[in-house]
Amino acid sequence: MCLAIPALVTAVLADDMATVSLGGVVKTVSVALLDEVAVGDYVLLHVGYALHKISEEEAERTLAMMAEGGLLEAELDEIAGDAA
Amino acid sequence: MKYVEEFRDRALAEKLSAAIRAEADPARSYNFMEFCGGHTHAIFRYGVQDLVPGNVHFVHGPGCPVCILPIRRLDDAIELAERHGVILCSYGDMLRVPGSKRRSLLSVKAQGADVRMVYSTLDALDIARKNPDRQVVFLGIGFETTTPPTALAIRQAADEGLTNFSVFCNHVLTPAAIRHILDAPDIDPEEAVHLDGFLGPSHVSTVIGSRPYEFLSETYRKPVVIAGFEPLDVLQSVLMLIRQVNEGRVEVENQYARVVTREGNTKAQDLVDEIFELRPAFEWRGLGMVARSALAIRPAYAPFDAEARFDLSEKTSREVKSCECPAILRGVKKPKDCKLFGNVCTPDNPMGSCMVSSEGSCAAYWTYRRAETLAEMAKDKAMAEQAA
């Protein structure tokens, strides 16, 4: 549960919430810990909250590392299982 | 170099490995503690130990949130679910950790207690909204990354006037635990683990920034490099630490500068300050009582504090006999030094917390180093028998 996963913000919603897309999973998350978030931003997502904004390059680099390490699938399962 | 094929960028891994070999002084040894379980996992998954010379050692620290929760607090959570009949919400890993008498949250759930795995505090809040006639308690665990989400949930519950939601708060602080480990040799010489530097946690640092580690260089004269989780990040950070040691420099350096700043996420820090206050001391599995190392919910938010709302009994909690998790969490012992490893204690049947979470040292050895560890154990046993 230490890992945070990069996600792309696809819609900004009311009450500090946003929709993000990650590996085909769409999820509603809280962006209340960040000052300003816009569609197209990448964020580090941890236990349902965006912790930090990151660059697209960093997001891609982290996602590739997690996929290679077999970590992405487990994280996505957890998130998808919860979304179901 | 048997693991180097695993790397996406093999050329860079080989280059970093070669630089480490060239710069590490064969006449000395380098002991670096990786505090965070995420690093422990990356080191094992990618065989980073095999890419550095034999005199560079990784000492696994206590940075796994599931591993360090003391058994008494877990027993309290079980009591909340069983005796107080609450809906107890927790992150997944926590459910399988054995408490006293080998009972886990999962086993009491099987016996009828209402224990639910959640991915986020947002889900716990939702459960409270949908069950207004039931008390819902979120078991809050973790370091500085999971604390702001818990703080937000409490503030959200207060804003909405939810009267059936509370948090059993067990949030802990990274810098205080590092300080405790460095003070340990002064308290008990047998606990002396010589450390030449630290790999600082990455995601924790996105929240708290690099500044809270500056006491390590200023007071304890220990180099720190805040390291990303990618294996190449770990290798680069090791090289940066070796350079500091060789040059006699003692600094907080930030290898993960593409994400971590000195200040961190001040919005998250302010929120944590609003909801929580420091506990004078808190018990950690392995470390014992650690001063000013954990957070409690401020009295202003007492209605959302499970410890204030529910009367928890005084209990005598017992660790599993022979389980070496406490010493392993202090970096004093390794999984091979635990008699239970691999025979009675496995990820399917864990006896201690270090085998439960994939970020725990024992689980990492089991997954990636099982054969070598069991062989070392057999050798140690044969030598001990011969000596006797």
UniProtKB/TrEMBL annotation, chain A:
Please state what the protein is called. HypC/HybG/HupF family hydrogenase formation chaperone
Name its species. Novosphingobium decolorationis
Q: Pfam families of this UniProt entry?
A: HupF_HypC (PF01455)
Q: Which InterPro entries match?
A: Hydrogenase_HupF/HypC
Which NCBIfam families does the protein's record reference?
hypC_hupF
The UniProt entry's sequence similarity note says: Belongs to the HupF/HypC family.
Instruction: Fetch the SUPFAM superfamilies from UniProt.
Output: HupF/HypC-like
Taxonomic lineage of the native organism: Bacteria, Pseudomonadati, Pseudomonadota, Alphaproteobacteria, Sphingomonadales
UniProtKB/TrEMBL annotation, chain B:
Q: Which Gene3D superfamilies match?
A: 6.10.20.100, HypD, alpha/beta domain 1 (3.40.50.11750)
The record, for Pfam families, names: HypD
- Report keywords, A-Z: Iron, Metal-binding
Amino-acid biosynthesis as a keyword of this entry, yes or no, is no
Highest taxon above the source species: Bacteria
InterPro entries, per this entry?
Answer: Hyd_form_HypD (IPR002780), HypD_1 (IPR042243), HypD_2_sf (IPR042244)
Family membership, please give it.
Belongs to the HypD family.
Name recorded for this polypeptide? Hydrogenase maturation factor
**Which species?**
Novosphingobium decolorationis
* Lineage, uppermost ranks: Bacteria, Pseudomonadati, Pseudomonadota, Alphaproteobacteria, Sphingomonadales
